[in-house]
Predict the 3D structure of the following.
Amino acid sequence: MNEEIARRLREAAEAHRPDRARMLARVQRGAAGFGVRHRARPFARSGTRVALAGVVATGILATGGLAVAAIVVSSSPSATVSEPPATPSPTAGSSPPASARPTPAAPAPATTPGGARPTPPSAGPSASPTVDESRDGALSSAGSVDPHSTVYWTQTDLTLRTTRPLTSLTVEMRIAQTGGVRSTGTWQTLPGDHFTVTVREAGGALVYRWVLKPGTTVPAGRHEFAAQFNNGTGGHSAAGDGYRVDAQGSGGSASVRGGFVPAR
């Protein structure tokens, strides 16, 4: 059916208002004519007219209501509900669409605020040597400033190692004369009566010397020698100090020398 015709019929049906009075009057006029053609008892004709009028009126009203209802129902468009298309749920093993996958963020470059790449941390500063080592053949030595030294007094230590017995040995330490340096003693781990020990000033230094006496022997092993002195005024620096060791044994002669590394 054309939409325009359906719309007009629907509007006409909605605007229709049946005139009950006119319809009843028409029914009564028909009933009156019927009464003229068929004579009957007054009471019977009157009751029949009333009953017939009621039946006819009811039928007309019912027919009109059904017609209006049919027009309205047939012409009214049915309401439709639009539903969004269902999104299929992902199945096992399926991948989400590319637009739903998160995009990994690019890692920031490892740079310092100034723009330069940071330098890998170092293992830390290497420890300063605590001894000055020297080696020659079977002989080796190491010199250091004793950690118990103070600003007023100093002890320099010499550690001597030999892998063979020594029949001749001379140990000499030179302490720079920085003003007021005075000897306060010496000591060694070997027996004192095996050495001739002297301390004197020569060439701007305080010289300590140990000389192995004839007929004695220094056994293989580790041995220590120490020189002690007062620093004088202003302390003492070991930068100008040093030692030298000359030895001889069954394997020949050997000589080592070095300095004294300040204690940390």
